[in-house]
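Same chain as my last thread, 225 residues:
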Amino acid sequence: MDLKEAMEQRHTVRSYIDRPLPSEVIRLLAERIQKNNEAYRLHMQLITENIEAFGPLLRLILAKGVRNYIILSAPAGPTVEERLGYCGADVMLYAQTLGLNSWWVGGTFNKKGVQKNADSAGTEKIIGLIAIGYGATQGVPHKSKRPEDISHYHGKAPDWFIEGVRAVLLAPTALNRQAFQIEGDGERVSMSYGRGAFADVDLGIGKYHFEIGAEREHFIWAEHS
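reply #2:
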């Protein structure tokens, strides 16, 4: 399975079976996380066999069986939320290629429990978690906007732009807002996101998905007008 296939197959899964991650899967995930950390000045961390990311009530009614998660953390700084969104999306889709399921968690986790298990270095900013593991189900597609609701191309849209927009609509966003605005003109593409607590995170997730769908060699990013 490649990242495009993973993007099509990945859906939010909140309940997991009691099956530990194999050591080889842990190694591959850790390597992918470290690669992103080094390239984008982040401090994402993989935590395995730990139930403290959620309180007892949430574990009972929502986050059933969550024992593995990635802490989306980084030193404080400009664009940190967008960078964490972008790299978190990469790790999440990579986990899908390894046969895992996932859930992007924004504000419903147990912050004290997470901080207790996090390496304190480089964690000035924690924007959420990605729960991972073997899902009790494969999840279901989320309700989606139409491509024309979030995008505009000056002239006839090329196939790569159409595929990029479609990929963005597969991305998880806070409250499933999908508040993207994507503009294309020739090979130049700009993307912005509406206001909100997780707007910059969602923008980073959306940019990663667009790059996977459109394929990076077809376009260049430009500032949104």
